[in-house]
């Protein structure tokens, strides 16, 4: 198809504009994190690593970072196991009840976060789970489960169940079939579910704000309280670190999925 | 594939096997005996129960009632992975994440066979299907025919006494199919394993099988050699499913010792006794009919039918004609290469000897299931 040169230029401009609009707000934090002064002014003045240093040395920041990391790791594992089991169960159920159950399991994605947060907070008050590791893990798992479910279900849909029949004919029992045939073939789906679950927990803020306590803060909560209290550029430094980390994680996940799709052709 | 070469396959005995899905009877009181080492083909239209029978033997489907023995032992209730039966599927079912070599080694690894022996047996199995050079490829890098040969190697590498094949060549083109048919025949001869082969292609069944079981609507119509089924079909369904045929229907007349049919004013007779209350039909194979111009000299003892040529097909070794008879039905005639040829629209006369016609009962259901 040939395109008028002017059309091509306009199209290119439109693409650049949309791209900038999407990315610019995120990228603003990067220069801000190198600010010399204790302000979140943009454009920043001078250049210094001091806010990164503060992130590493200030216990308030490093503790909340490790809290987040711990919660996210446990949530990723828990949500992946539960979500994978759920996806398998739904896959082998009759269509109608499976559809209903699936909707139920996906509600945490649809229900407004604040509503969910209020509900969880109310329950946690009674159960004494506010400000506890267990509380964070349970709440984040609910939120992360749908992502695992969707990812694993997607790979189960393209998985050829007749391969399991073939494995049985060759002498493989149920468990051997799962281990040697099913699991390796849906592993990319499980892995991307794991990544999404981790990221969901790691940057969760709404529910976390409700169930946090001065003794148990996650990194997003710490960022929020810090930025509402004073204009600490450490927030920008943390933001930059998170930006790099998530880009690598999600980018890796997408690459993994993309490679799987190509090899299955 | 034991070192001694030929090994005996397992016998199969299905006795009064039924399989029902709700009110639908996929298998309706099937009994079938397969000899050790025999090549048995289950032939029939789709939905006739042939694949269900295969799945029952493989253990993928449990029987609703009846008994099933493989190698003299009942396997009812034994899960598929404990039956030690090789299965080749129409869709190849190779594991896409394993190389050809690992696919073929898979059943051996499950059986805990040591690596050295495993490699030797994988090589032998791949040699047998002429795929030894492809051991390091992935299935996605192979053509359909190559994939199916690997699947065959994987199904025989663990020396099962019985190999089941479910339309294994169904997804391949004609040339490749014909070549692989001969390969399968050769492998059957070399292994001595019992083969049960499902197909809806009657030519394929005739090429491959020792015996053929013809399925229709969850029942077996007839079991026999290809020749049995062609020359002496037990039912009209079998007669029409195997080979070309002309079916003559008409008002029955005649006495106890012979059958006469009035077909739109012309009478044909056959020296067979027509028994009972069913509607008699006569079935004729194309080579039993002679085609000629009307008014030629009459031959005694021959039935004559007039019609017009509706299709003429040159076959090289002869010609095949479709002739529309007076009652609107179509007769199929094969004539050897002669000087005379007939044009479409020409009025002709068909002759046959009464004893060459096969008298069968009209099961009008055959019409609907054939389509």
Automatic annotation (TrEMBL), chain A:
The record's section on Pfam families has: BPD_transp_1
The record ties this protein, via InterPro entries, to: MetI-like (IPR000515), MetI-like_sf (IPR035906)
Task: Give the transmembrane ranges.
Answer: 65-88, 100-124, 130-152, 235-257
Compartment annotation: Cell inner membrane; Cell membrane
The keyword Metal-binding is assigned to this record:
no
Please give the name of this protein: ABC transporter permease
Domain (ABC transmembrane type-1): residue spans on this chain: 65-253
Keywords, alphabetical = Cell inner membrane, Cell membrane, Membrane, Transmembrane, Transmembrane helix, Transport
Classification from the root reads:
Bacteria, Pseudomonadati, Pseudomonadota, Alphaproteobacteria, Hyphomicrobiales
The primary location reported for this protein is membrane
* Family membership: Belongs to the binding-protein-dependent transport system permease family.
Regarding the membrane, this protein is recorded as: Multi-pass membrane protein
Q: Does the record bear Cell membrane in its keywords?
A: yes
TrEMBL record, chain B:
The protein's role, per its UniProt record: Part of the ABC transporter complex PotABCD involved in spermidine/putrescine import. Responsible for energy coupling to the transport system.
What InterPro entries does this protein map onto?
AAA+_ATPase, ABC_SmlMolc_Importer, ABC_transporter-like_ATP-bd, ABC_transporter-like_CS, Mo/tungstate-bd_C_term_dom, P-loop_NTPase, PotA-like, PotA_ATP-bd
Query: Organism classification, top ranks?
Result: Bacteria, Pseudomonadati, Pseudomonadota, Alphaproteobacteria, Hyphomicrobiales
Stored PANTHER family: SPERMIDINE/PUTRESCINE IMPORT ATP-BINDING PROTEIN POTA, SPERMIDINE_PUTRESCINE IMPORT ATP-BINDING PROTEIN POTA
Top enzyme category: translocase
- Species source reads Mesorhizobium retamae
What is this protein called in UniProt? Spermidine/putrescine import ATP-binding protein PotA
Looking at the keywords, is Membrane present? Answer: yes
What reaction(s) does this enzyme catalyze? ATP + H2O + polyamine-[polyamine-binding protein]Side 1 = ADP + phosphate + polyamineSide 2 + [polyamine-binding protein]Side 1
Give EC number(s), comma-separated.
7.6.2.11
Give the similarity note. Answer: Belongs to the ABC transporter superfamily. Spermidine/putrescine importer (TC 3.A.1.11.1) family.
Answer yes or no on keyword Membrane: yes
* Record GO terms (molecular function): ATP binding
Keywords, alphabetical = ATP-binding, Cell membrane, Membrane, Nucleotide-binding, Translocase, Transport
